[in-house]
Design a protein that fits this description.
Elements: H1 5-9, H2 18-27, E1 48-58, E2 66-71, E3 78-82, E4 92-96, H3 105-115, E5 120-124, E6 146-148, H4 153-165, E7 169-174, H5 177-180, H6 184-191, E8 206-210, H7 220-224, H8 228-234, E9 239-243, H9 249-258, E10 265-269
Parallel strand pairs: 5-6, 5-7, 7-8, 8-10, 9-10
Antiparallel strand pairs: 1-2, 1-4, 2-3
Helix pairs in contact: 3-9, 4-6
């Protein structure tokens, strides 16, 4: 049984530290097995502050991004690239300062931002129906932006390339790196080579893949492999970006979408962020 220290404290005549209270309870026959620190909001909102938007300017390389300066009470305003279309001078905003860890929501925020772009479309396993860890970050993406695929990774990447050749920016979701190995032919011999064929066809595909999570259940070695370096050696034009920290997630997907060099991107996630 798990009991809240705050709840117990309501019945005490004075304040007792958790460690001391656990010893008292154990001494009267109510053994306390362990103490676990719990946060209503993981990370306790450390690093978040309120800022005021001072200036807003259009990003020179992205129609849907703004460059802002924000006053957070420091010696100088911060320059922040923002994807919110309604950002305006004078607004009070929440600012995550450098080094802040935002748990759980960054993947969802990145997917929501991508879904707001007119030319994106999501495809893959469990993008419309639950079944993998990726699904939870896609629940707010409209169904008309998602194409559910069976477990045929080579076909999935081939269709993604075809969609990109027809003006879309596909976000191709593959739950595990070792699953993506099944699409090596389409990635290495087709998508990666388009820029080198002299056809002026530069399909931009965003491939989202994850190194297997170790909690709550260890997936064993089959799903924990990280093949980023192997694909860097095999691919000449596709960039592989590893999001090793939570703060890496949003910049990686913004770069993958806004890039103008004609390259595709494999964004590698590590689902045990903050564990």
């Amino acid at each position: 049984m798990t009991i809240s220290y705050n709840w117990l404290s309501e019945y005490l005549p004075w304040s007792i530290e958790p460690e001391k209270l656990s010893k008292i309870l154990t001494s009267i026959g109510l053994e306390v097995e362990s103490l676990t620190f719990y946060e209503n909001v993981k990370g306790g909102l450390a690093g978040l502050t309120v800022g005021e938007v001072l200036t807003v300017a259009q990003h020179p390389n992205a129609d849907k991004l703004k460059i802002t300066t924000v006053n957070i009470g420091a010696e100088a305003p911060l320059q922040i690239v923002c994807g919110a279309s309604n950002v305006a001078v004078g607004q009070k905003v929440i600012v995550a300062t450098i080094g802040t860890k935002l748990y759980n929501d960054e993947l969802k925020r990145a997917m929501n931002w991508l879904s707001e772009q007119d030319d994106t479309i999501f495809l893959g396993q469990a993008v419309r129906y639950g079944g993998t860890g990726c699904y939870e970050s896609l629940t707010e993406v409209a169904d008309n932006k998602k194409i559910e695929f069976p477990v045929v990774e080579n076909l999935q990447i081939g269709v993604s390339t075809g969609l990109a050749l027809n003006g879309f920016v596909p976000v191709s979701v593959v739950p595990r790196w070792n699953f993506l190995l099944c699409a090596t032919d389409q990635i290495v011999n087709h998508l990666d080579k388009m820029m080198l064929m002299g056809t002026n066809c530069n399909p931009k595909v965003i491939i989202r893949v994850a190194v297997g999570s170790e909690v709550p259940v260890d997936p064993q070695d089959q799903h924990k492999g990280n093949f980023s370096e192997a694909f860097r050696l095999m691919c000449k034009t596709i960039e592989i970006i590893e999001c090793k920290e939570i703060a890496d997630i949003m910049p990686a997907y913004i770069k993958a979408y806004t890039r103008t060099d004609g390259r595709s991107t494999i964004v590698v996630e590590f689902p045990d962020y903050g564990k």
